[in-house]
Structure formats: structure tokens, C-alpha cells
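SAMPLE LOG
Freezer: B-3
Tube label: C17
Construct: single chain, 1458 aa
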Amino acid sequence: MEPGSDDFLPPPECPVFEPSWAEFRDPLGYIAKIRPIAEKSGICKIRPPADWQPPFAVEVDNFRFTPRIQRLNELEAQTRVKLNYLDQIAKFWEIQGSSLKIPNVERRILDLYSLSKIVVEEGGYEAICKDRRWARVAQRLNYPPGKNIGSLLRSHYERIVYPYEMYQSGANLVQCNTRPFDNEEKDKEYKPHSIPLRQSVQPSKFNSYGRRAKRLQPDIESYVCRMCSRGDEDDKLLLCDGCDDNYHIFCLLPPLPEIPKGVWRCPKCVMAECKRPPEAFGFEQATREYTLQSFGEMADSFKADYFNMPVHMVPTELVEKEFWRLVNSIEEDVTVEYGADIHSKEFGSGFPVSDSKRHLTPEEEEYATSGWNLNVMPVLEQSVLCHINADISGMKVPWLYVGMVFSAFCWHIEDHWSYSINYLHWGEPKTWYGVPSLAAEHLEEVMKKLTPELFDSQPDLLHQLVTLMNPNTLMSHGVPVVRTNQCAGEFVITFPRAYHSGFNQGYNFAEAVNFCTADWLPAGRQCIEHYRRLRRYCVFSHEELICKMAACPEKLDLNLAAAVHKEMFIMVQEERRLRKALLEKGVTEAEREAFELLPDDERQCIKCKTTCFLSALACYDCPDGLVCLSHINDLCKCSSSRQYLRYRYTLDELPAMLHKLKVRAESFDTWANKVRVALEVEDGRKRSLEELRALESEARERRFPNSELLQRLKNCLSEAEACVSRALGLVSGQEAGPHRVAGLQMTLAELRAFLDQMNNLPCAMHQIGDVKGILEQVEVYQAEAREALASLPSSPGLLQSLLERGQQLGVEVPEAQQLQRQVEQAQWLDEVKRTLAPSARRGTLAVMRGLLVAGASVAPSPAVDKARAELQELLTIAERWEEKAHLCLEARQKHPPATLEAIIREAENIPVHLPNIQALKEALAKARAWIADVDEIQNGDHYPCLDDLEGLVAVGRDLPVGLEELRQLELQVLTAHSWREKASKTFLKKNSCYTLLEVLCPCADAGSDSTKRSRWMEKELGLYKSDTELLGLSAQDLRDPGSVIVAFKEGEQKEKEGILQLRRTNSAKPSPLASSTTASSATSICVCGQVPAGVGALQCDLCQDWFHGRCVSVPRLLSSPRPNPTSSPLLAWWEWDTKFLCPLCMRSRRPRLETILALLVALQRLPVRLPEGEALQCLTERAISWQGRARQALASEDVTALLGRLAELRQRLQTEPRPEEPSTCPSAPASDPLGEGSGKNMPKVQGLLENGDSMTNSEKAALEEGSGKRDLEMLSSLLPQLSGPALELPEATRAPLEELMMEGDLLEVTLDENHSIWQLLQAGQSPDLERIRTLLELEKAERHGSRARGRALERRRRRKVDRGGEGDDPAREELEPKRVRSSGPEAEEAQEEEELEEETGGEGPPTSLPTTGSPSTQENQNGLEPAPEATSGPLAPFSTLTPQLHLPSPPQPPQQQL
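STRUCTURE (predicted):
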């Protein structure tokens, strides 16, 4: 697809307008506004506001149409002339028996029409040949010189064109080649277009050509040669298929060698056929019906295939150039289809239409009533066409256009030279070309000049919309042409008699309609005259339209009325002239005729085809026709007496109609004259507001145009009404006085200007007097204010009263502002004076800052400046002291009271309230009170209590004052806390649920088992916190030593009574060891909350209650003492450690009395009283008192005798050798050093024990495990041999000892006398075998768990060694806690045991608490710093334990068997 050699040059762009929303609301008004500019181009484009997007209202599914077929090269006028010429040549050679073949010259087809035309213009064939000007012919055909093309053109002309031209001129005797194309194989064979045969405007039919067989007809006379008039040689006669004439083949010029085959025509018929004029050209209708979808698919497919790219990517410039190339081509036949002139009444408009067919949405309703809706615009009030009743298709009713690429609309002007408007609903652009109305005749002349052949046969060719001409061709002949691309959503407007044409860039949908405005009327009248000359039918009667509008002038727009009046006047004058000519002809008859009721074809002039309305001439004898009065001589040949006038109005009625129009048109002038006189006060009288309003109402009622005069009237009314309103507001403001709304006052200058404005208005207003009165008052006030300001300093009262009077005026006077400044100065200075007065209350910093800020807004003066400087200095000093006080309050290093007193003393001289100074003063007062409290406590009768000291320390630390006494108090409190912590470590067990004070005080509620047990459980759970509740002391009582002592003594007695009651209660409970235990409500409950039952239950020796052995700490038999390594402990069973006290009775570690005395010595050095210290003193006194009574009881005669016998028995057991034990006992050698072989083994064992440090942990564990296992087995095997009692205790002796024993067990102190009494009581009764068995079983279970933990620990140690000695890692050692790193192997083993318990989940028997047995064990467990050699672990060998009895024992009877 190559473009032609002459590329198309686009014409300049037409004007494009983009109205605002305000302009867009009046369509015809906006078009009138842009007409002076747009009319010069003929067409223009309008882009609506972006938000104006009407919905597409066509029912797509029901829209079906049949398009027109357009062959592009038949549309262009010059191309069509060439095609018609080629058809005639082709027909000529076809008659001659040959087919036309068009030669190619220089690779392009030879333009035979241009060649023929240029030859004629150059003088003809003979003249060119004579002057040898064929090279010039080639040059005019745009062939390059120097290639001998002229000779080639001459050859082609002679061979193809010249014979045809000769026939056309009537020269029949020219020699020509009857087979001119036989040797031209490369020439292109021409196929005739037969344009007239394909048009919708059907041409007249040709006569069918006959066949040659007619020479055999019987009419012999007809067989005569027309050339020689002879009938001989009939075999050489040739019969014409057109006219049946005969010719000898040798008589023809040139002669034929033989009779030709096929159709043959004689030279006469050939000339007649070639000279036949062409038929009228028109468009052919397609045979297929389309929907919008099917047409769009066809159109898009055609464009995409033609340009070989997507339709939306084809540039508009490329389509435009290709369109004009195809239009100008005679060798490329491209056919497209165009859905043009589709009636919207039948198929539906693209705009929403208000009718009863369907309901419209609010949005559709808005667009349905819009003036830009093409269904609405022709019938707008300012439009002329709204006065035509008929729906003129294409003019009042829009037409629809469905286009595809290259589909075109040819050069034309609208009917009656009206406006047209086209809206592109959607699709690809539509390219437009326009010529202004001033160049319309020039365009017609150029087209007639370039293609006279078309206009000769079709004079109104440009009215048929079937002819294009290249814009470049028109522009080259001086015709101004513009172009534009109309995109979707844009309007294109064509102006009256503006020629326009164009084509579509692709598939789109457009809608167009005509409209006429007042300025069109002269053009419409000229168009009727133009149509009359062309004898073209009218669409409507122009005269009828003018008369219909003139009949109702009050309904006309003013501009339209003026235009109609001018047209009506011309029309009436012309009608007078024509009727006068008719009268002169002698026609006197006349009839009134309502022409508007006749069909148009019954009132058309038979001469010029115009539609008659005002008048027509008819004949009685020739009723079938009539003529307009311009052609009265063309009606008929009848006499004038038989002719008559048919008229619509008489000559008298027409002036009346004209007068009404004049009144309507001149009503504006009358009104305008009134308004002009009123506004310019030409008669010297100002009109009232009511009169001006009446003039405005008249303009509105008569719908006068919005002229400049009307706008002046509206502006004058608005200004006058505003002045009246302002004057009323000014007067009412004076009446309102101080209650007037702020911000409504006007200045004095504004008041004078306002008065001048009211005087200058051409309107009489009685409010002018009120305004003058106000101005006079203001001037009087101004004089008084100036006098007061000149005599300053005046009294503040006078100034204030003047100021208030000025405020009541409602006008801002300059002097009032000066008065206001003076009053503000006086008020501010007075406020400063009151604030800084010595007798006044001190102001805050905020008040000072507020005064400074207010002073900044006060007008400056010397007094104000001085006061502001003083205030600023005072504020600076106050802020400095405030900052210093803030630093003292917030500083980490506290200042002594003397420093703070100095700061406060200095700040007191500043007359400002300083919050930080006040806070510092309050802190200093609190410090003095705190020092007084300290002196009172320190100088009292007793040492101060720790709680009081702690409270004082807490208060002193919070004070921002440096206190020397605070450090002393903190040291005293710290010393007291250190003593309490030391005492707690001495008394309290690990993780004890008791406080130190509870342990030191007697248990007053010991008699209540449930209360005691519940409180112990609460303490275990952390719920019970009271220290002194059991003593019944308040916090104030604890401060009195006497109260503490009395309460302690009372608590001792309550505790003793309570434990006796508890013992009786618990003794009554059934024993868990009994086989026939029955359910009872008084059943023992263990600390675990369960009922102890069966083997493993132990009874407390103090409270007589029962517990699970696994839930409490129990004594260990293997830790029982023995006299020496060679003695047998198994026989002195009363010395075995079987004493059991439950955790409810044994609340502390029970240190020895010597340790307690050391704590009391340290307590004496404390200058602080502690409740725990006084309780410890009471406990010590109670212990010493009990010890004295115990020693007295042990020293009695009866008890001394019993102890002597017990000592003798122990001595005999030590000296007697132990009987041999069964050989089956593996522990005998280790247990009895006097047995066989013991002498050899004992040193070894002792050496092992002495060198234990050199043994490994596994060796130690193995040794201890073996020894302990043997001791337990030995004890278990000898239990059946135990019997008793060893002594006989009389009841008189037993009862006091048991009471002493009970009181000693209540003491939280370890005393040797307690143990001695317990052994004596044990020897006086039978051995408790059940308890011994229970203790053995518990110890076995504990040792089994210990062995499991030991093996697990050993495995962990081995794993550590296998991992490469992780314990030696310095980084790991650094991360370990200090207590682990500094505690040696024992701590490491303890840590490993804890880790093992975490790994095993705490399985095995519970870890036992410290035993409650021998004094040595208790002392070792409860001492402050127990010696290593005094500690006996749970796995210590039985043979290493030593007895600690200090009393001699009497000899025992020999017959007693133990």
C-alpha cells in the first residue's frame, strides 16, 4: 500500500471551542456568541464540559439498517469524469470488437482522459504533430523529460484515443487499426465501471442489441449497402446489430478483411452510443441488513486487514492520506459501506428522549431536556424551526450515521442553507472539511470548471451529496478549506451555506440535525431564490414560516421578532409588486386559499418548483397546475380572464401583521428609552425604587434580551436596595447602642462616601435624611473628642464617657481610636500599680507575663515604657530565683537547711508568688519537724523502736534537704536489720513458714488442733502474715517493754494449757497402727491433708498427733551415740534417737542456750528496740528458768539413784564382750570391734575414714553405703531381742519428769537437761518396737533414694570428663554463680544433686528435715557456725558415733536381760 506521488497536504484546522458550564447552559446563545469567529471558517468544533456525558439510548439489539455502497474512486468529481471517459472509449472499442487495454508509461497507468484533454488544449492532434510538441504533452502529464516519452504518448494516442475522437467529431473515413490491442500483452485490460447501471437513481434503459441473423430475413429490399446503394455480393454484406443497416465490408473505412464474429455496429450507431450523455449519479444500496454488532465486526475487520495493524493503532494522518489517494485513483477500486441518513424516529435517537415508551432515570431525564440534545435543539424557543409543525426528517428530526473506515459524505450544504450540528456518540474519529459561506459560489465555480461534464448532465449535482473533490485541488484554485477530527463526545457545527464534506476514520456512531436561528432568516430567503433558479424543490415554505411567526409576535424572542419584522417587510413589498404586475396583466379574479392545508406537491410552481403560500396564479381551464407570481407568463396559453389569483392574506392584512411585529420588535426600544431617561435623570426627576422595579418587571414579562441597558437597570436596583439596607442597618445600630453586632461599624470616610453614593444614585430614597443626621452627630462628637485629646491628661472618667458615646454612634471616628488608646493605657498602668502594691496579694509569674503581653498591645508612652521595663526586670529576677529553687528541689546533692533558709530569705523580698520557693519553704518546714521528731525519739525513756526509725528514714529520704541525723538513723536501722537477719539464721529453718517473732513467742493457741494446723497450712501457702497476733499485742503495745513481758508470760501459760488440752484430744484419737481402726470424726490428719494409716505412721511425742513418716522429718537410728568404738550400742536401746516432734510443735532449729546468749550480748549493744529482741530475752529467761527446775529435779535423791543404776547398766554393757552374732550377718565384723577378726579390720576401716580426703567420691559412697546397710540389717535382726523397761520409775517420780519434759519440748531452745530427762523416761518403759521398725523402714527407703541419686551424679561426672573437662573451661567458670565457684567439691556435689532432682522429676523419698533426736545433732544443726567435726551426715557409719551423756548411771541388776 504505497501512497501516491502527490501526497495529501492537510488543510488548516478549524476553530475549536470549549465552553464553561455557564456558557454551555444556553446552546443557541453560545453559538451566537462564537458565530463571528466560527462563521469565517464555515465549520467549528465544540468540546462540551468533561462532566457532560449523555448515555447512549439506542436499543442496540433492535437496531437494524441497510447501508449504502460507496466505491471511493467514483466519489471524486475529476476521477468520475475520467472513469466515464474510459467507459466511453471502452464501449467504442467493444463495438469495434476489441477490449480496451490501458498502457503503462513509466510504471504508472496512462491517464487517457488527461492525455485527450491536453491534446485538445494544445491545438489538436495535427497541430501537435506538426509542431512536434509531444514532449510538452509529456511534461504536462508530469512525466520526466529526456526519455522520448513524447513519441510513446503519440503512439498510444494514435492507437487508442485518436480513432474515438474522430468518431466523436463525425469523421468516419479515417483509417484506423481495428485490432489495436492484439500485440499489447503488457497493457492492463480495462473493465468498464458501468456506473449508471448500478445506481439507486435508475438510468433510462438501453435498447437491446439484436443479433446478426437478421440478414436472413425475407425483406430482400433491405439488403442494400448504405455506402454504395448496391445489393450485390450479399456474402460481403454486414448487418448492423444496432440499426439493421447493411454495409459491404469493402465499403467501410477502413475496409474489413472478413465478416467479424459477435456483435457489430455500424459507424453511425457507434457515434450515437459514444455521444450518449451520462445518467444521473447516485449511491447503490447494499443487499445485506446489519446490526450494530455485525457492522462493527465487519468494519473493524476491514480496517485491520487493510492497514495490517490493530484498528486503534492506525494514525489518523495515514488514513487521511490513503483516503484521498484511493479517491483519486482510477486503477484501485475500494468499496466500503456507510449507514447514512437513518431516521431516528424509526430506529431511535442516541440521546434520551422524553416520551411514554419507557421510564427515564434522573440522569437520563437531565440529558433528555438538555438544549444540546439534538432532539431538543431544533425546537428551542430561540429556534425558527420550532414554528414548523411537520417533523421534517433530517432537519427537525435527527438522522443517524453508522460509519466505517473510508466511508464518506460528499461536498454539500444543508437544505435551506440552515445550520447543522453533528454529535459523535462513540467510535473512531470523523474527519471534516469545511468552506465558509463567502466562498460557496467560488467552490461551485471551481468544481464546474474542473468537471463541466458532470454539471452539464446534472446541474444540481452538489445538492445530491454524491460528489467529492480533493481539498488540495480546491485550495490550489483559491478556495479556503479547513479541517478537523471530531472525536467521540464532541460537536461539529456547520454554518449557513457552508460547504462541508468528510469521511470516517473507522467504526463510529454519529447523529445530526438542522436548526435555524434569527440570523439565518436572510440566508433562508436567499436560498429560496437560489432554489427557484435551479428549479429545486423546497423542504418547507419560507413564506409560510415567516407568516406563522408573524401571526403570534408575542411568543417570539425579541431578537427573532426584529429579524422576522425585517423579513416580513421585504416579503410584503415584494408581494405588493408581484400582485400589481398581475393586475396589470389583466387578472382580476381572486380566491382565498389556505395553502398550509394543501400538500406541498399541490402548491408547487410548475415552473420553478417553489412552494407557494402567500399567493399563486391558477387557471379555471387548467386546474392541474399553478405558478408563483414570478412566473405568471408560464402557466398556460389561456386568456387572462380565465386565470385567477389564489391568495392567503389580503394586502390589507399583511401590513397589520407587520405592525404587530413592529410593536413587538420596537417594544424594547420604548422600554429602553424609559430606562435610559430614568437612569440618566434626563428630565431632572429621580425615580422611586418602585418605578425602577416596575421597569425591570416589564423586561422580565416581555422577555426582553439581556442587554447592557437591562444590566445597568439591575445593577442600579441592586445598589439602591443595598444602600437602603445599609442605611437601615446604620439607624438600627444607633438604636441598639452597645448591643450592636460587632464588626458592622463603618468609618467616617465610609459614611461620607456612602452618603455621596446615595446622592449619586438615580433613585429617590428617604433614608438619605437619616444618614445625613448621623453624619452631623459624628462631626459634633469628633470636635468634642479633639478638644478632650488636646487637653491631656484628662480625667479617665471623661475619656471613658466620650468613648462610650462614640461607640453608640455606630461609626468609627479616628479620634475614638485615640481615646481608646488613652483609656487602655490608663487601665493597664492602674492594673500594674495594683499588682505591684505592697499591700496587694502577690501575683504569680503567669500574671506578670500576662501584664507584659497586655502591655505590648498598649500604645507606647513614657509611663507605659517605664512600667514595662520594671515589670520585665522583676520577672527576670523572679524567674532566676524560681530556677534556683527548682534546682534545689530537683538536685541529687541535697543542701543543708541553712543554705535553703538563705535562699528563702532572699526570695521573700520579691513581690511575686513563686511556686518553687513556696515548695522549698514547705520542704524546709517538714525537715525541721523531722529533726524535732528525731530528737524526741532519741531523747526518750526507751530506745526507739525499729518501725519508728524506719518511718523516719523513709520520710527523711524523701525530703529535698540535707540532714545529718538521717545518716545516723540509717546506720542504726541497718545494724538492727543485721542483728535480725543473724537471729533469723540462728532460729529459722530453711524456707520456714514462720517469722522470727512467731518462733520466739509462745504459741498461745496450741490447744486448738484445727486452728494450729490451719494456720500452719496458711503459712505454708504464704497466706498468714501476722507476727504478734497470738500474743494479742497491737503495734503501740510492742513499743512498751513491760507490755511485751506481761504478754509473753500470759502466752506461756496459755501455751502450756493448750498443749495439755491438745495431748488429751489427740490421745483419744484411734491409732493408725491398730488393725481394727474404725471411722471416727476425731481422726488424725497429716500435714499432707490425708489420714495417716498403717505402717509408716509416727506419733508426735509432744502433741500426740499422728503423721506420715514420709511427710515429716524423722530421727535417724544410725546417728544414735554410743560410748566408744568397742561398745555395743544395740543393747542401750534407751539411748537410741527415736524421739519425734512434728513440724507443728518444733517450729525452729532450736539453737543451744550459749548461742542465744551471744545474740543477747549483741542485742545489748543496739540503740534500737526490736520486738524480736524483747521476745528473745523472754525466751531466754524462760529457758533458764526451766533449766534450773530441771537440774533441781535431776538432782533430787530419787532421780539421782535412778541415774546411778542406769549408769551402772551402761558401764556393764561397755565392759562385757558382745556375744557372737550369727555368721550370716555380714555386718558383724564392722559393727563389733571385739568380735573375731575385728582387730585386724578396725585399723583398716579407721584408716580409710581418716584418709577419706584421698578417696574418690565413688569409693566414699561405696564405703558409706556398705557400712550403713550392714548397720540397718543388724538393727533389724536384733529388734526381737529388745525388752524393757530398764528401770522402774515410780509414778511420783515419773509425773514431774513428764511435765518437765513437756515444758522443755515447748521451748524453742536446745538444753542438755531435756535430753537427760527423755533418756530416763525412755529407760523407765518398754522399747517402742513399732516406732523403731517404722524409723528403720524410712531410713532404708531414704538410703535407697540416696544411692540412686549418687549413681546418677557419678554418671554425670563421667559424662563431663568424656566431653573434655567442661568444668575446666574458664569461660564457663566465669559464668557460674560465685557460691558454686567458692564452695568446693561439696557445693559441686550439692549442685549436681539438685540438677539430678530436676532431671528425675523429684522421684524417690522426700528429703528429710534435720532430726529431732540427740542434743549433739540439734546443736550441730542449729549452731551459728557449726564445727565440721560435729556434723553427722545421714550416711555416717553407725560405728563412728559417740555418746554425749554426762551423768553417771547406777549399776543394773544382773538378771535383767536387755
